[in-house]
Amino acid sequence: MARAVAEIDTAVFVLDFAQNNSDVDSLGQVCDSFIGILRDATLTPQIVSITPIYAASEEAGSQRNEQMRALIRKVVSRRIAAGRYPSATGGRHDLLGPSRVDGLVDGTHPNDLGFQWMAEGLAERLRKVMGL
Fold it and tell me: Can you give the pTM of this predicted structure?
């Protein structure tokens, strides 16, 4: 899949694939290699990785999303330090966090308002990364 994505002519890739992994181990198996394939195939586009948005399960003590956030930040930080990833990564709750549960339809998935808030949060990041 990463090789196919790398063929897209774009200025920026926005990666948000943590939530579709069943656990941190499965994310660990794909995150670094996907980014590596994407970066090795093309050095031109910027890459923005976002971390999982807030989920109500975190209030019940689930550590899944925070562990995924930590893994993504680690991979991105390592690639930035190596000079192979001039990019940004999302923080703990900077796109949709616990103060914005009205943006979640079921405590996990964004509704229209949640997607609007996420788009607004990404817009500024994308302007910065693209130098606009």
Answer: 0.84
